[in-house]
Design brief:
The chain has 115 residues and is an alpha+beta fold. 30% of the residues lie in helices and 30% in strands. A five-stranded mixed sheet has the order 3-2-1-4-5.
Length: 115
Amino acid sequence: MRNLHINACWEYIITEKSTNDANIKLNFFLFKKTETSLEATKHKPDLKPDLILYFTEKAILHMIEGTLSAEEYYERYHNIMENPQVEMEIDSKVNKPRLKLWQIGYKQWQKDFKF
């Protein structure tokens, strides 16, 4: 969440075989608590998520496997987006107006991670 303001919030929705599955295996929120710390919680925070991220279980496990930098993580993310495979899908939804997101640091974040 580099470049993003405090309280930037992402909602993660993990499904089994397809991002279209109605059966959610795991739902959690990741938000920037301070300039140097993030918090993950299963309880909905008093923040509206900026982004809603959908992953199949296989995709999220592939993305977080091993120790990696943010650049490596987003490289894997782009690879899955461009080359989806059976049971390895990713999708996302922007949950706030673009101008609002740019004001809280997403413009630089997009530039850094090629979104």
